[in-house]
Amino acid sequence: MKKIALMTVCSLVFLSMVPAAGLAQERGHIELSSIAEIETEVTDERGETKVQRVPAEKAFPGDEIIFTTTYANISQEEAENVAITNPVPEHMFSSAGSAVGEGTAVTFSVDGGLTFDRPENLKITGEDGKERPARPSEYTHIRWMIRGVLPPGKEGSVSFRAVIE
Fold first, then answer.
1. Concatenated DSSP letters for 104-124?
2. Is 154 helix (H, G, I), strand (E, B) or coil?
3. Residue 28 near residue 82 (C-beta atoms within 8 A)
4. Nearest Cα to 11, choosing from 73, 67, 72?
5. CA nearest 145: which of 116, 123, 121?
6. Which run of H or E residues covers position 22?
7. Which among 78, 84, 67 is positioned nearest to 23, based on CA atoms?
8. Structure pTM?
9. What is the per-residue pLDDT across 56-107, written as a single tens digit (0 to 9) for each?
10. In the 8-state DSSP scheme, what is residue 75?
11. What span, in angstroms and rounded, lies between the C-alpha atoms of 68 and 93?
């Protein structure tokens, strides 16, 4: 028998990691973990500079944070209809084109997570009362639907970037 899993990762409140495994296990045996990171330049012992991701312990307005959610099917059964939903943290805005996840379909919400769609279908009513296309900075939630089934033991990750206001 196939399990159906639908998970929501709790709000990543200003750069804190969210342990979501307990919630996921209750809803389909999918284990989740999340981390917030920043990219920083580091110089190695040879004097070469490279970009490295480090936990986002301190961040300031204008900094871009990378939110990554790792998932794993820890059951002995396939999981289908697996959805991972992340809210865009308050006082942050999503970076255009940054939501990625191999083998997933990515959709967005502009209404607090009530409905989701592809960016080209999202509309906002402007201050002038006219409807216009939504901007990435107006997304409130991001959802990744894993295509097909998630076999037992299979794991992966999804991520997005957001900038602090």
1. EEEEEESSTTS--B-GGG-EE
2. coil
3. yes
4. 67
5. 116
6. helix 21-26
7. 84
8. 0.80
9. 998 899 999 999 999 999 999 999 999 999 999 999 999 999 999 999 999 9
10. S
11. 16
